[in-house]
């Protein structure tokens, strides 16, 4: 009698009784005992155990990788949306047919719309920025001091200086990376150059003016920290030759997903002709691309789990072949076809469930400490594995969505059980007399 049959022999009488009387009961102690013994390595079935180990490792790595990648994609989406919409606003209202000189009344009307948190008149224009240590192109924005203090992505990210008395101090606020690039800090001066200067008999001359740096902010998105320069609204109007005129009114709302309702409310509240551009139009391609990438990565990484499930099929099939004599002996002792079927289902499901659980823990551990791991690897490898200049973010974001984690774990366990059905059915279908005769 082989090892498996000897293991089952201890339970022969009880197993036979349970096999018959336990037909209506799922997964008896006898079935669990035999299944767990078959999972242990034996000299005669060592190769089968190796396949089981690789199946377990494949499922573990597949689940962990899926959780980490989905968490990173969620983090990218949330961080980029918060950064982009925290600085650029949810909607831009611009005038048509006439210069935007009645911006105060339009901003007041927009502020009355339910759900509007901020309606900030703004002058915007491209400019050159220079210091004795460097020069670069920037996007200059003119805002009222009270609006700048309410700007979600800027006011909360102040690193140095102050926005106090911003309207009258005559200073500017710049991003941390721009300050590093130009080699300046709070109190130093930065010169801004605009091609649209004063009108002279010889044409338009460039305008250049030096401003003290009143504040330095760090939004956390390198593109913005490198690009934006905020000026007092009146100063920006003078600098860009906008006589009591603004470029747009930037609007922040409580619910960015309800932009259709906001557009309808603007049509009722604002009487003058305006054109509205919301965040969906401005960033649609960007966020759609992120979603497509997330879906494709999910499909690709799911293949890892599927391959591991196929390993379960091959491993169980070889185990059934290796334990043919054992199965025949168990059947002659009274074990039913259902008992044999459940024994091999337990083996396959145990590999899949254990691998999914360990992968779940490993994935959560990595996802929750991803940026710390990145910093450690940067230090150990003396490399920059997540350059902010390329990925726009100063840290590696990760947000674990419980619903996605449950989907990954549930899918993995289901695949493991489905992969176990065919080998288990083959084992249950063995004719014990024929099997013993062929030995």
Written account of the structure:
- This protein is α+β, with helices and mostly antiparallel strands and 439 residues long.
- The protein folds into 2 domains: 3-80 and 287-438, no CATH class; 98-272, no CATH class.
- Helices cover 59% and strands 17% of the residues.
- The protein has 19 helices and 12 strands.
- The chain has helices at residues 3-9, 12-21, 29-39, 46-88, 103-111, 145-150, 152-155, 166-169, 176-182, 222-225, 233-239, 259-269, 279-322, 324-332, 337-368, 370-381, 388-391, 402-428, 432-438; strands at 91-95, 116-131, 134-143, 158-161, 172-175, 189-194, 199-200, 203-204, 207-217, 228-232, 248-253, 274-278.
- The strands form 2 sheets. The protein has a 6-stranded mixed barrel. The chain has a two-stranded antiparallel ribbon with strand order 7-8.
- Strand 2 and strand 3 (134-143) form a beta hairpin.
- Helix 13 packs antiparallel against helix 15 and helix 13 runs parallel beside helix 18.
- The radius of gyration is 34 Å and the shape is elongated.
- Residues 55-268 form the MacB-like periplasmic core domain.
- It is found in: Cell membrane.
- This is Lipoprotein-releasing ABC transporter permease subunit.
- InterPro entries: ABC3_permease_C, Lipoprotein-release_system, LolCE_TM, MacB_PCD.
């Amino acid at each position: 009698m082989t090892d498996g049959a000897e293991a089952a022999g201890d339970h022969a009488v009880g197993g036979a009784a349970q096999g018959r009387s336990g037909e209506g009961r799922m997964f008896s102690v006898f079935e669990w005992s035999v299944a767990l013994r078959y999972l242990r390595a034996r000299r005669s079935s060592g190769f089968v155990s190796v396949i089981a180990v690789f199946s377990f490792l494949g499922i573990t790595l597949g689940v962990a990788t899926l959780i980490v990648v989905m968490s990173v994609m969620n983090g990218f989406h949330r961080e980029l949306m918060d950064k982009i919409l925290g600085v650029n606003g949810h909607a831009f209202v611009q005038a048509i047919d006439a210069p935007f000189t009645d911006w105060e009344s339009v901003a007041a009307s927009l502020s009355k719309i339910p759900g509007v948190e901020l309606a900030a008149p703004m002058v915007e224009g491209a400019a050159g920025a220079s210091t004795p240590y460097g020069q670069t192109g920037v996007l200059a924005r003119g805002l009222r001091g009270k609006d700048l203090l309410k700007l979600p992505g800027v006011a909360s990210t102040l690193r140095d200086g102050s926005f106090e008395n911003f309207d009258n101090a005559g200073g500017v606020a710049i991003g941390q990376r721009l300050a590093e690039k130009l080699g300046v800090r709070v109190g130093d001066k930065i010169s801004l150059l605009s091609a649209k200067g004063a009108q002279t008999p010889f044409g338009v001359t460039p305008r250049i003016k030096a401003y003290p740096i009143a504040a330095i902010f760090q939004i956390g998105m390198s593109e913005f920290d490198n690009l934006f320069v905020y000026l007092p609204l009146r100063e920006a109007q003078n600098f860009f030759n906008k006589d009591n005129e603004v470029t747009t009114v930037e609007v922040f709302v409580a619910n960015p997903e309800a932009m259709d309702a906001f557009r309808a409310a603007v049509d009722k509240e604002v009487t003058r002709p305006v054109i509205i551009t919301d965040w969906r139009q401005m960033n649609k391609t960007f966020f759609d691309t992120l979603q497509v990438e997330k879906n494709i990565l999910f499909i690709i990484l799911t293949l890892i789990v599927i391959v591991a499930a196929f390993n379960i099929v091959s491993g169980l099939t070889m185990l059934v072949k290796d334990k043919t004599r054992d199965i025949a002996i168990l059947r002659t002792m009274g074990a039913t076809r259902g008992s044999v079927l459940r024994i091999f289902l337990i083996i396959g499901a145990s590999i899949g469930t254990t691998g999914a659980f360990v992968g779940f823990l490993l994935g959560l551990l990595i996802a929750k400490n991803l940026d710390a791991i990145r910093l450690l690897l940067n230090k150990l490898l003396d490399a920059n594995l997540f350059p902010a200049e390329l990925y726009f973010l100063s840290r590696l974001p990760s947000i674990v969505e419980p619903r996605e984690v449950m989907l990954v774990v549930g899918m993995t366990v289901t695949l493991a059980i489905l992969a176990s059905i065919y080998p288990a059915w083959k084992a249950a279908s063995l004719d014990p007399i024929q099997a013993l005769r062929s030995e």
